[in-house]
Design a protein that fits this description.
The protein has about 450 residues and is an alpha+beta fold. The protein has 13 helices and 17 strands. Strands 6-2-1-7-17-16 form a six-stranded mixed β-sheet, covered by helices on one side. Strands 10-11-12-13-9-14 form a six-stranded antiparallel β-sheet. A three-stranded antiparallel β-sheet has the order 3-5-4. The chain is globular. The model has no long low-confidence stretch (mean pLDDT about 95). The structure holds flavin-adenine dinucleotide. Flavin-adenine dinucleotide (FAD) binds next to helix 1, strand 2 and helix 11. The site of flavin-adenine dinucleotide has 33 residues, from helix 1, strand 2 and helix 11.
Length: about 450
């Protein structure tokens, strides 16, 4: 068979993309290296769409939760993975969890019934020079292919591990305590600064040292982290003042909330936590230099002890993992195509989305885009008020390229709903708007 599209990687994204394409009559070759003598450090078997860790697709609440909404939208688009999850479902309260073996077998069964799809157990080592291609090789892309991707994209645009600093919803930062400024007033007031006095700093420093950390997996421990990506608690362990000369440096930052007649511009705090805008909408702000292996509950507790962040809601908490991903906002066009080689699309976690569901969702979109291209039609993206549209916009240009790190779907990626909507009703307002806009987009 000659193929219309070559999909590399039969995980969440590749399986979903293959389904969307083959169901529309396109001829697809799906290359998966597992089952052909290769594997990754995390996969256990050879099944397509293997869940490497948790068996949960997280919340299924499509009225109040962004990932639940993503489930809803994927179901509306006949998602393979959502369909298989329905068959493999196990009780998990309001979450959608599955029996991983039943799930993977169901994905294989459904794909196996499509006559114009071939699953080939082979490792691909170089990016194809021609022909529509979808690369969906995930966070543990085989080294040979990663090298080829690095050559095509420029090595600094391909990361081999993430260094995730927590991200805060802007409207939960207390600006009566924090203030906007750049160091020495240079440039615009680009940073939000949270001031700590000496006592607060010392307590925070101790909290970092004492906090419970997540262990590296054996194969992650061998991935050295660069100095610039060192976890904050490791930096804290190097000395009491290391952070004050690093990410918590207060110099050149007059805090106007501490102004006195003697110091009308305010004073420098003892230490500072800086947040930088993370998306074009300005709804999300990352804590600069705060990548960490602290456990999530510990992060929330400790970071809420920072003045100005007492009521912070986190769109993402910090982490550090082995993870191969592209600087997509820089490299990909709005249709997930490599700008320098538009016959190649990327999908799944390698684009910098995070999680099973998000990876499958981006695979679904890549499949739809390729099918549209093959049909000679023009592509209209889902509205960015939908979960699919918000995630896609983030990856393909709306996230800040400079600080780009993997991201789960969350309401901070959506254009804000009217401020007049009461806080308690906002989540419902996001999902109601998304469903109406999705319905209009589907026609
Ligand atoms: C250790 C670990 C734990 C995780 N835990 C969770 C979790 O609990 N919950 C969650 O939501 N997300 C989790 N994630 C994230 C999750 O893996 C991904 O979000 C999801 O599986 C990514 O989907 P994907 O399709 O992009 O990649 P994958 O599902 O990893 O699929 C990529 C596929 O490509 C194949 N492949 C790689 N290179 C080649 C090549 N050169 N040629 C052919 N085939 C190739 C691989 O064998 C694999 O089957 C975890 C990730 C890791 C690494």
């Amino acid at each position: 068979m000659t193929y219309d599209v070559h999909i590399i990687g039969g995980g969440m994204a590749g399986s979903e993309a293959a389904w969307q394409l083959a169901r529309r009559g396109c001829k697809v070759r799906l290359s998966e290296m597992r089952g052909g003598g290769d594997s990754t450090p995390a996969h256990q078997g050879t099944g397509l769409a293997e869940l490497v860790c948790s068996n949960s697709f997280r919340s299924d609440d499509h009225e109040n939760n962004a990932v639940g909404l993503l489930h809803y939208e994927m179901r509306a688009l006949d998602s393979l993975l959502m369909g298989a999850a329905e068959i493999a479902k196990v009780p998990a309260g309001s979450a959608l969890a599955v029996d991983r073996d039943v799930f993977s077998a169901e994905v294989e069964r459904r794909l196996g019934e499509l006559p114009n799809l071939d699953v080939v157990r082979e490792r691909i080592d170089t990016l194809p020079a021609a022909g529509l291609t979808i690369v969906a090789t995930g966070p543990l892309t085989a080294a040979s292919l990663a090298e080829s991707i690095g050559k095509a994209t420029g090595e600094s645009s391909l990361a081999f591990f993430d260094a995730i600093a927590p991200i805060v919803h802007h409207d939960t930062i207390d600006m009566d305590v924090a203030w906007r400024a750049a160091r020495w007033d240079k440039g615009g007031k680009d940073y939000i600064n949270c001031p700590l006095n000496r006592e607060q700093y010392l307590a925070f420093h101790q909290g970092l040292l004492d906090g419970e950390k997540t262990e590296f997996r054996e194969w992650e421990a061998n991935t050295p982290y660069f100095e610039g990506c060192m976890p904050i608690e490791v930096m804290a362990g190097r000395g009491i003042d290391t952070l004050r000369f690093g990410p918590m440096k207060p110099v050149g930052l007059d805090n106007p909330h501490w102004a006195t007649p003697e110091h009308p511009n305010g004073r420098w705090p003892y230490a500072v936590v800086q947040l930088r805008q993370d998306n074009k909408l300005g709804t999300l702000w990352n804590m600069v230099g705060f990548q960490t292996k602290l456990k999530h509950a510990e992060q929330v507790r400790l970071f809420r002890s920072i003045p100005g962040l007492e009521n912070a809601e986190f769109a993402r908490l910090g982490g550090l993992h082995r993870n191969t991903f592209l600087n997509s906002p820089l490299l990909l066009d709005r249709q997930l195509r490599l700008k320098s080689a538009p016959h190649i699309r990327f999908a799944g976690q390698v684009t910098g989305c995070e999680g099973y569901v998000e990876s499958a969702a981006v695979g679904l979109l890549a499949g739809l885009m390729a099918a549209t291209e093959l049909a000679g039609q023009s592509w209209t993206a889902p509205p960015r008020t939908t979960a699919l549209g918000a995630l896609l916009s983030h990856i393909t240009g709306d996230a800040e390229a400079e600080s780009y790190q993997p991201m789960n779907v969350n309401f901070g990626l959506f254009p804000p709903v009217d401020d007049a909507v009461k806080k308690k009703q906002r989540k419902a307002a996001y999902t109601t708007r998304a469903k109406a806009d999705l319905a209009a987009w589907l026609g």
